[in-house]
Amino acid sequence: MTGWLTAFLGISRRETLRFVNQRGRFLAALVRPLVWLFIFAAGFRAVLGLSITPPYQTYVLYEVYVTPGLVAMIQLFNGMQSSLSMVYDRETGAMRTLLVSPFPRWFLLGSKLVAGVIVSIIQVFTFLAIAWFWGITPPAWGYVAVIPALILSGLMLGAMGLFLSSAIRQLENFAGVMNFVIFPMFFASSALYPLWRMRESSPLLHDICAFNPFTHAVELIRFALYLQINWTSLAVVLGCLAGFFGAAVFMYDPQKGLWARRKGGHS
Amino acid sequence: MTAAALEIDHVSHNFGAVQALQDVSLTVPRGGFTALLGVNGAGKTTLFSLITRLYDNRSGVIRVGGHDLRRNPSQALARLGVVFQSRAMDADLTILQNLIYHASLHGIPGRIARPRIMQVLEQVDLADKADARVTALSGGQSRRAEIARALIHRPDLLLLDEATVGLDVKSRAEVLALTRRLIARDGVSALWATHIMDEIAPDDDLVVLHRGQVLRQGRADAIAGSQGLTQAFLHMTGVAP
Question: Could you tell me which chain A residue has the CA closest to the CA of B91?
Fold first, then answer.
């Protein structure tokens, strides 16, 4: 059992060290949501009126509404960053060090996933601390209650990234992931506008947003931040987490997924 | 009787319609240096990918220290130290951080790993580079660091896939000498994949792999005969090494 814990801690330490060493990555992860909060949300405050929508007990400013969406955005980008680093590791050869470990592959991938979530939670709390000075002040206990939601949503988005990394053959293809996965997921969700507003403009788009797992990650975080549980979102996030992680393990299994059929070196 | 360090029995592998390995059988004895000789495209890396379980061996049996890789992968992989053809260390980390990470992947905690890492770095003459980034090392130093990484968990069998590729003559000789020293002193077994004849000594065990098939296995001087290894290889394969 100690060996398993050692392996998990080693993988977590490596991910954290890489994150610390790549200061640009930390800044980018922070600047992106802050730009949305300081500029985009300020601009839209006057345009987008928000009626009382659960979990909020009263009318809220647009900045307050958009904050859980930006928190989820940090986790979405972090999940994709992990995916990108998996593809990079595979291209450079560093991933083979991980995969030839005697521990089972599901455990190695799971540890990498959890390590990525730890990094994303550090980013989220740094963002929430800055947002607090901007007047985004959820209940104090909300900062504690949101942790399990962040863990689950981070795991789900990280698992999705892992799954995508198994399907992406080259680093160059990652731009496609940005265009066809990250942006549609983010914009077709409740991160920036409530779903009822979406229904007013397009029922079809509303339905797409309602099926989007990212919407449920956002809502899980939003409700938890205000000391409530959105059971539907919790179920969807758990289900998608199991689905994405299962698919990722399958794809990385030497006996099954695409990894088995991938051509290796040249000698 | 003690099991061989590595036994490969009737292993084949294909990528779609391309037959990469065909009915490959070979044995690496304990405490010996076995050279796997073949030109680019012979199937050396594919064979290494099967031994390290990066690919699944769908036909035949691979045993590491007597442990069947399919039935008991954890036991088998724990006995393997691997030096890949391309760099496998994390460029964002120092040598020490990389080695601690590798030790953890074998379940070795930091308090045990640190003294062991310093000892291994001494062996490969890189003790003063422990806190250097991987990118700061020369080609030869980088390969020695990879060997150090492969040794931390004290494997029975070292797999070295073209470990000297891209190195100058001096660094190549250093890396080869280091591997031979480890075998002589620690009793580690090694499977050394190469396409360079100079790296093979007359008393080495030699496996000739060509177009996915093992053509010969035996002592290098016996395979070379009176014509020399280069001519013997040319005669067997029709290809200059």
Answer: A94
